[in-house]
Design goal:
The protein has 75 residues and is mainly α. The protein has helices spanning 10-22, 28-36, 42-52, 55-70. It has 4 helices and no strands.
Length: 75
């Protein structure tokens, strides 16, 4: 459901905000913002992959990434 546009009139906007704060009008924007803060796609996959790897493997991957980033030979 698309969010309703906020009124341009400052008094009407203030009333709308107060109605949302007091719960008279449901504020769907809070739900939209909460879902936007959850990691999705590659970020979620990276967290899952890091959680499943051992400390030694994560160190090896980080060392390889640093070497590639700085153009140094891998030690």
């Amino acid at each position: 459901m698309p969010l309703p546009k906020r009124p341009r009139d400052p008094v009407a906007r203030a009333k709308l905000v107060m109605d949302m704060l007091t719960g008279e009008i449901p504020n769907d924007k809070d739900q939209v913002l909460a879902s936007a803060q959850e990691p999705t796609g590659p970020a979620k996959a990276a967290k899952a992959r890091a959680a499943s790897q051992t400390t030694a493997r994560r160190s090896e991957v980080a060392r390889k990434a640093a070497a590639a980033r700085w153009g140094k030979a891998q030690a």
